[in-house]
Amino acid sequence: MKRQPRPLPREFYDRHPAGVARELLGKVLVRKTAADVLRGRILEAEAYLAADDPACHASRGRTRKNASMFGPPGHAYVYPIHSRFCFNVVTEPEGVASAVLIRAVEPLAGLQQMQNRRQRQHVRDLASGPARLCEAFDIDRRLDGWDLTLGRQLWIVDDGAPPPLDESVGRSSRIGVTAAEHLPLRFYIRSHALVSGPRRLRA
DNA sequence: CTACCGATTGACT
DNA sequence: GTCAATCGGTAGA
Is the pTM of this model over 0.90? Predict the structure, then answer.
């Protein structure tokens, strides 16, 4: 029986969020609950910077909501928006508040459970979009601050699949942000049907 | 306490 | 393509 890949180590996350966002493409998000194991390949991620980035939730200092972003790298930052949730991984050393938002994954395992949670049948509707992904993977505020290196409940692995080549990785401005619109901090698998966002940013 | 608003989504033209 | 629902977090009185 094949050994399960280990969670990405803390060092993976301990660097600039743009590098983490790019390197997370092709990695596999794993969610284990009492009942299910869900897996999805990361297709799209956005970096939020600790400095000179007004779109970053930490740009105006520490609050109760963004506290986990100021914590050590390799933990989750889960926040609510519009009655939904978005999932980030915390990057850079403790005290440096930066993160990477996971915007879309390709469902690999647990499709049935995702369909049930999302109340949608089509794969396109399961985990394309940050809040859809959270609903499909049963991620909410309970997992804010969760340590992603433990290999329990929620973590990320390299399953050995070849990483995407540079020419297959697209880069664009971040979706939905009203501040710092020009920064090209969104990374995604080019032409993958399950990437979220408007068509003009997908090519 | 009230007022405002968003790293969204789904329904609709 | 457009648009409104929705509510926790934050700022300000």
Answer: yes
